[in-house]
Every structure is written in structure tokens, then in C-alpha cells.
Amino acid sequence: MDEFSVTEVAQGFRAKLWRGERMCLIGMDVDQPEAGLVGFAIEVIGPTAVKLLPTIAETPLPPKRLACHSKS
Fold first, then answer.
1. Rg (CA), the chain
2. What is the rounded distance in angstroms from the CA atom of residue 49 to the CA atom of residue 14?
3. pTM (global) more than 0.85
């Protein structure tokens, strides 16, 4: 699946992007994170835009497990 992903490494930070259908999955790893690191934000700028805009994180939650009861 290498034709659908790209990886970059710089100064102890690794990022990998996987191309999907109309979306991209971003994976990141830091060798030695700062003690206070609790999260991150990703901003993007479009080809004709003049300022950075925050991305919309689409994190699907797992479906709730429904109990199935059958009467035998």
C-alpha cells in the first residue's frame, strides 16, 4: 500500500499520511515529547486562502453494542 501513503521524519518527529477516499488519515509519533504535551492542532491553508483554518476532526465513535435477546 505504499502508493497510498507517504512518510516524513525530521528532528525526532515522524508523520505518515494515508490517502483514502475523500479523506486522509494522519499518524504522528514524537521520540521525546515535552512533559506538558497533551495534544495538538492541525491547521490548513487552501490554494487561494490568505489565512490558516483549523481542520475538522472526523473521529467516528464505535457503535454501541446492542444486546440481542432471542426467545427459544
1. 19
2. 27
3. no
